[in-house]
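Just wondering, does anyone understand what follows?

——
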Amino acid sequence: MLKEECNRLDPRVRRTRQLLHEALRKLLEQKRFDDITIQDISEAATLNRATFYAHYPDKFALLGELIRLTFLQLLDQRNVRWDGTCSSAFQAIILAVCDYLLEVQKSRSSDRLQFEPFVEATVIDQIRLILLEGFRRHPEAERRISHEMVAATASWAMYGAVKQWVDTPNRPPAEEFVATAIELVQPVMSAGSASVPSALPLASHS
């Protein structure tokens, strides 16, 4: 997944972006993101500001890509290749989210509050894209709810379940929690499928 994306980039572009990613990563170990400037990043990467702006419009875009690529690396480590049917790959996606949010939690508390909106938006979007790709590879004949709606809802549900797990004191191991997460998210993934009966009408109240 990540390797395929990197291979599509020109080697010079890939090298420059790697320098910028590593520069930001190191700077985040030294100071808060709000205090980091484009000049700081450029100098740490041994590049000039013009080169930075040739690749990213601002430091927020760079941070977003750094988060995205870090999460994709975790997915690659777990060899996630979801084709729309394999439950083990679905489990690997959830475990990768667990891995990543645990890493975020280890960061300094002030920085974590800064990063959470970027992490949430980026990780949820990557899950959504993975689910959509799985649906594309395994199309269904009939579905009352669009794949886009299912993927968007499931990605939010998956992230929310993992976030709650991470924030829970004395939480169970990720390998135990993943069964609960799948139980919560699976109905969303099956929603609108021809094999799933329509919801029963609400009971009337007298």
The CA atoms of residues 161 and 181 lie 6 Å apart. The two ends are 55 Å apart (CA to CA).
